[in-house]
Design goal:
The chain has 6 helices and 8 strands; from the N terminus they run βββαααββαβαβαβ. The chain has 238 residues and is α+β, with helices and mostly antiparallel strands. It folds into 2 domains: 5-82, no CATH class; 90-234, 2-Layer Sandwich (60s Ribosomal Protein L30, Chain: A). A 5-stranded mixed beta sheet has the order 4-5-8-6-7. Helix 2 crosses helix 3 (80-105), helix 3 (80-105) crosses helix 4 and helix 4 crosses helix 5 (177-194).
Length: 238
């Protein structure tokens, strides 16, 4: 049975009455928009790492970026937003790895948190040194042995950071908190390399004195929190 087309649209084969064809097109458009908003809603419920993996998989599949740009051999097109998500995903995975290793070693009184450059494992001063000194205590050596095993297990570059409070040091050996904080970081580095078996190429040391506090120095609790050694596991970014 043939269909006839009139000026008003498609004619019904039985009644001969015209139906408007725009209704079909409009219905299809509505369905497309509905699918689009469902997709947006699903993206809103995904964590950044999954979005990153989806974007990377899509790019690998179609080899096309926004605006119709093709990835040619020998060219690199970087999307800053996707790169940021990739760094966040990398940092989150590094945090999970450090947290799992710390738990397996049974370490206590150690804080773990994410920082812009990676993940920090924070050791309080009282766990490592006597007041105003940079020589590791016997208890510190026992504490650093599992830290060394964690570093060997993860294999990421580590920056050892020494920090103090803002009280001036009164010592002939250390003219200022710069020398004290740096000496403490180096003491930890030497122990991890010489006694804990960590590859020295993974380690670096730096002293920040009182200039990178966690909190204010107006209370004894605040000053105690600022006196610390941070073990910073750094992300390896190509």
């Amino acid at each position: 049975m043939a269909r006839r087309f009139g000026k008003g649209g498609i004619q019904h084969p039985a009644t001969g009455q015209a139906r408007d064809g725009w209704q079909i097109v409009y219905t299809g458009f509505i369905l497309i928009m509905l699918c689009f908003f469902i997709m947006l809603t699903s993206f809103a419920s995904l964590d950044p790492s999954r979005i990153t993996r989806f974007v990377n998989s899509f790019n690998d599949a179609v080899n096309v970026l926004s605006g119709g740009q093709n990835i040619e051999e020998g060219e690199a097109i970087v999307d800053e937003h996707v790169n940021l998500l990739a760094r966040e995903d990398m940092r989150a995975k590094l945090f999970e790895t450090v947290h799992e290793a710390t738990r397996d070693e049974g370490l206590r009184q150690i804080d773990i948190s994410q920082v812009p450059d990676g993940v920090v494992l924070r050791l309080k001063e009282k766990l490592l040194f006597d007041s105003g000194d940079a020589i590791l205590t016997e208890a510190a050596r026992e504490r650093l042995d599992p830290v060394g095993r964690i570093i060997r297990r993860i294999g990421a570059p580590v920056e050892i950071q020494g920090h103090t409070d803002d009280r001036p040091i009164r010592s002939g050996r250390f003219p200022s908190n710069w020398e004290l904080s740096t000496a403490r970081a180096i003491s930890v580095l030497r122990y991890l390399s010489a006694s804990a078996g960590v590859d020295r190429h993974l380690l670096s040391a730096v002293g920040y004195a009182e200039f990178n506090p966690l909190t204010d120095n107006t209370t004894e609790a605040g000053r105690a929190a600022n006196r610390r050694v941070d073990i910073v596991f750094q992300m390896e970014v190509d």
